[in-house]
Automatic annotation (TrEMBL):
It holds the Pfam family CheR_N. S-adenosyl-L-methionine binds at N88, T90, R94, E132, D159, N217, L218, R234, N235. Methylation of the membrane-bound methyl-accepting chemotaxis proteins (MCP) to form gamma-glutamyl methyl ester residues in MCP. The keyword Plastid does not apply. GO terms for biological process: methylation. Keywords: Methyltransferase, S-adenosyl-L-methionine, Transferase. It is an enzyme of class 2 (transferase). The keyword Protein biosynthesis does not apply. It catalyses: L-glutamyl-[protein] + S-adenosyl-L-methionine = [protein]-L-glutamate 5-O-methyl ester + S-adenosyl-L-homocysteine. Signal peptide: none annotated. Its EC number is 2.1.1.80. This is Chemotaxis protein methyltransferase. GO terms for molecular function: protein-glutamate O-methyltransferase activity.
Length: 290
């Protein structure tokens, strides 16, 4: 049976209503304004498929009703919408060269400079389900033990997705998700579950002490003042268009001191977007002098 994309009638095999043109255009505009994510026409099928779950969860008849929910309470549903249309791909020690740089060079230097009671701050911007900030916590805890000193060290982890933040706060992961963690670090920084949790592991309380997990929309106001020694924003800006990236990088520059570091994902670049940073390694940028 043929059907156009201009209605919300069910189609055999689709298992739900269609995403009509008017609703898709509304969602494209809404997502761009609130999340900075640019949805091309080629994303229509993806958006339809993923948002069908939200329609079922909210017991809505069609996408027009879902758009009405966004109009009535844009911020109440924003996190769920962002979770649905973006892909949270993450892993412990993903892009391990970044953590090698921290372990071998940056953390020893920072701890040495701040030994007399200084403040060390790292930010995982777009922390997803928590693997990145807990990886940062592992290398930070090990560096503090090795190099000592009275350093006030903390990691801020933020994301827009409520589901991702819930997983990060629990800090409980299937054993197979620890594939990138060495056997020694597994023994040191994870507690093996028992009974029904036998196939899961929980992060060590020491790592939880170092990490603060909070909801944050990168496009909205930021409550923190900084400065941060390093900001990790990896595999986040791939969803943004050029003007949004430029604004975001400028805001990051405002929270980093001269010599502060910004880490991007393997497929991301700051080329032609900001002149406050110098590329010093594989997707590693250092803020220069003003």
């Amino acid at each position: 049976m043929a059907a156009t994309m201009d209605n919300n009638t069910a189609v055999a095999g689709m298992g739900g209503p269609l995403l009509g043109n008017a609703e898709f255009e509304f969602l494209r505009t809404f997502v761009y304004e609130h999340c900075g994510i640019s949805l091309g026409e080629h994303k229509r099928q993806l958006v339809q498929g993923r948002l069908l779950r939200r329609l079922r969860a909210l017991q809505l008849r069609d996408f027009a009703a879902y758009c009405d929910v966004l109009r009535r309470d844009p911020h109440g549903e924003l996190g769920e919408l962002a979770s649905a249309i973006s892909t949270n791909v993450t892993a412990f020690f993903r892009e391990s060269h970044h953590f090698d740089l921290l372990t071998n060079e940056l953390l020893p230097r920072w701890i040495s400079e701040k030994k007399s009671g200084g403040r060390l701050r790292l930010w995982s911007a777009g922390c997803a389900t928590g693997e990145e900030p807990y990886t940062l916590a592992m290398v930070l805890a090990e560096a503090l033990e090795k190099h000592g000193g009275n350093v006030d060290a903390k990691i801020l982890a933020t994301d827009l997705s409520p589901q991702a933040l819930e997983t990060a706060r629990k800090g409980i992961y299937p054993i197979e998700r620890l594939e990138g963690v060495s056997a020694e670090r597994r023994r040191r920084w994870f507690l093996r579950g028992e009974g029904e949790y036998e196939q899961f592991a929980c992060v060590h309380p020491r790592l939880r002490e170092l990490v603060s997990i909070l909801p944050l929309n990168l496009l909205h106001e930021w409550p923190m003042q900084g400065p941060f020694d390093a900001i990790f924003c990896r595999n986040v800006v791939i969803y943004f268009d050029k003007p949004t990236k430029q604004r975001l990088f400028q805001r990051y520059a405002g929270l980093l001191p001269e010599g502060g570091y910004l880490f991007l994902g393997h497929s991301e670049s700051m080329y032609g977007l900001n002149d406050s940073f110098d590329l010093i390694g594989r997707t590693v940028y250092r803020k220069g002098s003003a």
